[in-house]
Amino acid sequence: MTLTISSPAFADGERIPDQYVRDSDNRSPPLEWQGEPEGTMSYALIVEDPDAPRGTFRHWAICDIPANRHELGEGEGQRGRGLHQLANDFGNAGYDGPQPPRGDGPHHYRFRLAALDTDHLDIPASARADAVWNAARPHILAEAELTGIYER
Q: What is the pLDDT of residues 87-113, one digit of tens each?
């Protein structure tokens, strides 16, 4: 079976609903995954916008998600929910939704999930979101991606 990630809130390639964007409720969308490979000990998740004017912008990063978890509920990315979340590119440890510049056209928000062969990534508490994927790379057993689109 192949690792897949999905959301009951939007399908791959579809518009992200307003309640998950920074200008609105700024709640993280519900996410579900399945098909992890044998040997998976944890997961890492990063949400990034490769269409940002100054280069890839990271909206959320989590690591050390236990292997027996297969979902993140709506709003679980709010700060202080017991997840190992790192500072996003807004400077907040938690989820901050899409907020592309007005009139910049559609942006593609990639929700990237990695199944890892380790239960813990050694990342300093002061690290930023990009550190999650850099630390995860040598441990990746499988990856899955869900893309949502949003424009203002």
A: 999 999 999 999 999 999 999 999 999
What is the rounded CA–CA span in Å between residue 94 and residue 61?
7
Residue with tokens 């630390």: 135
In the CATH scheme, what is the code of domain 4-143? 3.90.280.10
Is the full-model pTM beyond 0.85?
A: yes
The first and second tokens of residue 121, run together, are 């990534």
C-alpha span between 65 and 83 (Å, rounded): 7
User: What is the rounded average pLDDT of the residues 3-9?
Assistant: 98
What is the domain partition of the chain in residue ranges?
Answer: 4-143
What DSSP letter does each residue of the chain carry, written as one string? ---EEE-SS--TTSBPPGGGSTTTT-PPPPEEEE-PPTT--EEEEEEEETT-TTS-EEEEEEEEEETT--EE-TTTTSTTSSSEE-B-TTS-BS-----PPTTS--EEEEEEEEEESSS-----TT-BTHHHHHHHGGGEEEEEEEEEEE--
Q: How far apart are CA 4 and CA 144, in angstroms?
A: 5
